[in-house]
Amino acid sequence: MAPFKKYIRPSVMQKLLRKGAELVGNGCVLAVSFEGEVVLVEGAESFPGGAEPGPGVIAERINFSDVHSGYILAGVPDDCGPASAESCRRALSFIAFSLQELIDVELARRSIADEALAKYRELALLHRSVPNINTSLRLRAVVDALINECRMENYPGELGMIYLRDPASSRFRLAVQFGFPFGANLHRMLDSDLFKDVAEKEHGEIVNDLDRDERWNHELPGLGAMVIIPIVSPNRCEGMLILASENKGLYEAAHRVSLSTLASVAGISLSNAFNFEGVQKLMDAILQALAEAIDSRDPFTAGHSERVACLAVALAHALNEHGGFNGRVFSDEELRELYYSGILHDVGKIGIREEVLTKQARLNSKSMDVVRARFQLMGAVEDFDWAAAFDCVTNVNKAMTPDAGELDFIRDLGKRSLNRGETSLPLLYEDELDNLLLAYGNLTREERREIERHPAESERILQHIPMQESFANLLAIIRQHHERMDGSGYPDGLKGEDLLVQSRLMSIVDIYDAVTQERHYKPAFTRSEAVKILRQEVEEGKLDAELTRFFLENVERIEMLSEHVKASRVFQLSEIGSLGSM
Questions:
Q1: What is the three-class DSSP state of 19?
Q2: pTM (2 decimals)?
Q3: What is the 8-class DSSP label of residue 6?
Q4: What residues form DSSP beta bridges with 177?
Q5: Are the CB atoms for 223 and 246 separated by under 8 Å?
Q6: Dihedral of CA 208/212/218/221: which sign?
């Protein structure tokens, strides 16, 4: 009776038989059989004949479906004459026609209801899955959302995997899986003719008995059934979604339909994510090339921008590991922003003259040769120890902070000149004196102003590049990386809370890298010497004391994280968190 109820309600059928029995009369018994079994009787407690036509039984076939059939039967009494039997046959034919119409209408109604229910479920699935799958432009986030949706729907099977197709090589690679033991060689799936066939046709399939599919050569041993769905975008097959089980016969057509719906949503998201990642890689390559072009102008600063970028990300991540800075935790986007700020912070140096940018001494070698010639000439015609005087000039020329006595000697030399007739040749010209008498460093005031313009120049150059909305602070960080907490920095003399936390952080790592690397005017300092310099900067109120203290207490950890950032480029792969496992 249970399968019979799928096609028509027994109560409706019983009423029809009752009306038919009244119509036929003459003591005829009516019955309905389904697949060789009498399921309903009217006119007696049981049907006197069999479930099919036979002696004393007339019948009309009923088709319940393309698979299931039966009869409407009439038991004709032995004393029923030919006329009555013919009348019974005609009545039975009419009843059979009416019953068939009822069944067909019911099947049509149920088909429409099932189709409407399937559409509703599909729309509900779309309504729920689209926001979940489309919330990110990161490949990992899209893939995780898709596999989570599959698990939320409770599809049959305890195993699942998603393969993505690399846009450049068109090769598939495993992106995510669940249910398989650690170390399972799931890349063997790519060798399957079944996998290749579905990927080529871009049409999902259900294989409920893998042992009987010629395209399956047990690439993954132990699997019994599988539903394999291509993840297709308007342009190409982006990947493959596979659910599987060790058992057979689990999957139905409805599973393939709903999984195809999910895959269609994911296909567009994956296409966007691949395009976004491609743009990110292109942007990274361009910005990296730009930074390297700037660094290459001076071999002593080569690699400085990348080192500062990696140290900045590492310091921020280390702060995250300890609960953030004053409760503030840096997001992945902020870490990426820090990286790009570090890569680009010195772009403005492109406008600085080569002789200023790479100045190694107060006077260049050509100028020193000219000074030497003058000194030798003075020594040849007057009582003048030119060699001792030139040695003093040479020492001052290379010194970062010359001795006060040596500077006084230079001033005295500036007052002397070689006079012959109306010709007067000074030992040191005014511009040479300006350079040699600098109290610190080798840059004149004008040259230092030129150098100090580079943060503002960096901002000016980069402001025309359309950055992501999530990089809203990038230009400010770059402009402020030489500002100091006490207002003594440049270009704007900002101080204290006017400075972004990211800018204060960048200042620390910028100084640390600068002092630990060899420069024209100094050797590379050791880590302990760099620590002393940073502490002195804090004592003078120039650096954020709390940030600097944290950096110095965790400098070894930060340098290790920095190397990991440089090696893996996790800043662009949404895997910043993996740094914490080191």
A1: helix
A2: 0.61
A3: T
A4: 161
A5: yes
A6: positive
